[in-house]
Design brief:
about 70 residues, 3 helices, about 70% helix, transmembrane helix, single chain, membrane
Length: about 70
């Protein structure tokens, strides 16, 4: 009887660890597939991206100009 209890506990804990490991790997894969390819430092060869970054946002400038007038 004691042997059956130990074996069933061992099997249950092994399955639990395996499932936890599987689901953690799946969640890590999901996090890696986010569509962030060029966040942070733009490549010097990417002319369009560098142009967009250098232009900046024009809304704050227009808002500031309107408030000044």
């Amino acid at each position: 009887m004691k042997r059956k209890t130990i074996m069933s506990s061992l099997v249950i804990s092994t399955v639990a660890v395996g499932l936890t490991s599987y689901f953690l790997k799946q969640s890590m894969k999901a996090k890696k597939s986010l569509p962030i390819h060029k966040a942070g430092n733009p490549s010097p060869e990417d002319i369009e991206d560098n142009k967009m970054v250098s232009e900046g946002s024009t809304y704050p400038v227009q808002y500031y100009d309107q408030q000044k007038k």
